[in-house]
Amino acid sequence: MKTIDPLTHRWGGLPISAHPVQFLSESLDWLPRFTKVPVSKFGFEENRHRVFVVSDKAPIPVAMVSPGYRIVQHAEMLTAARDFLAAMNCPDNEPAKIHLTSNGERMAAWLDLGKRFAYRPDGHTISLQLQITNTVDGGGSMNASLLWFRQVCANGLKIQATYRSTIRHGASATPDLVFAPIAEQLRQSETQGRNFEAWSAQPIDLKRVRAWIDEDISDAWGKLAAARLWSIATTGRDAVFAPPFAALPASHRKVKPTIEVPGSPPESHTLYDVAQAASWIASRRTSFEEGQWMQQQIEPLLARLN
User: Fold this and answer.
1) Total-model pTM
2) Residues 222, 224, 225, 229, CA torsion sign
3) Whether pLDDT at 4 is above 50
4) Where are the domains positioned within the chain?
C-alpha cells in the first residue's frame, strides 16, 4: 500500500510515495528492477556513449546514462543493509519505511535499529535509524548514514549524524562498501545518545538563542526559517510571515502563528528543546534534498549556540 508522505513531496522534482514495510520479514520482490538498453531500442540512432535505463514495471526509459554506469538495484542495496545490520547484532524485525520516486528510479529507506539505540531525554523516545539512498538514473550516489528519529504523535523529528558514507556508481561499486564506514559510527552512537541527555539538562538563555537565530540560522537557512524557529522556541507554534514585511532581523519580524509543534514546549528551556525545534523546520521541507542538507547542519549549528 502506497501513501504520499506529508513531509516530503518531491526529490529532484520527482514526486515521492512512501511504502511502510516490516524490514527483513517481507519480500523485496515488489521493488522495481532496472536494466540498461541501447537507445536504438526506442527508435533513436545508435549511440555508443549513452544507453537508456528501463524499469521492469514499465517498458519506458527512466534515465540516460553512460554504458559504464553501474546499476545497483534497490533490493541489492537493502539486502546489503540487512547483512550489515545482522553483522552488527541489530534486530531483524523492526519497522522500516521506503520512499520511491514516481518510476522507482530513486529510493530512500529508513531502518529502525531497535531499543538498544533508544533514549528518552525529554520523556519522548529518540532512536537510531540507518538511512539509505540509492538512484539508478545517474542523479546520485549510494549513501548511508545514521539518523536520530524522535517520534511524537504522527510527526517524526530528525537529527542526522554529521558523517555520511558515499560510493559513486562506478564499474566496481558494490553496496557493501557504503556500509563498512558506518560500523564505527554505530559503535560511537551511545556517546551521541548520552549527548542528547546532556542537552536536555542544559538550560539556554533566550537572549542568546535570539542572537544565534538572527545571525547563524538566518545566514544558513534564511530569514523565514529563522523566524519560524524563533516562534517555536518562544511559543511552541510554527509560523509564517505576516504584514508589514519590514526589513528586520528574523526574530523581530511579524509572524502569524500556525500549528502547534508536537512535543515542543510553549517555551524552549534547554538546548534539546532548541534542537528539536530546528529539526522540525528541516523535516518540513518539501524538497527531499533540502531537508537532508538541513538535517546534517543541525548539530554544527547548535555547536555555535552551545
Assistant:
1) 0.82
2) positive
3) no
4) 10-188, 206-305
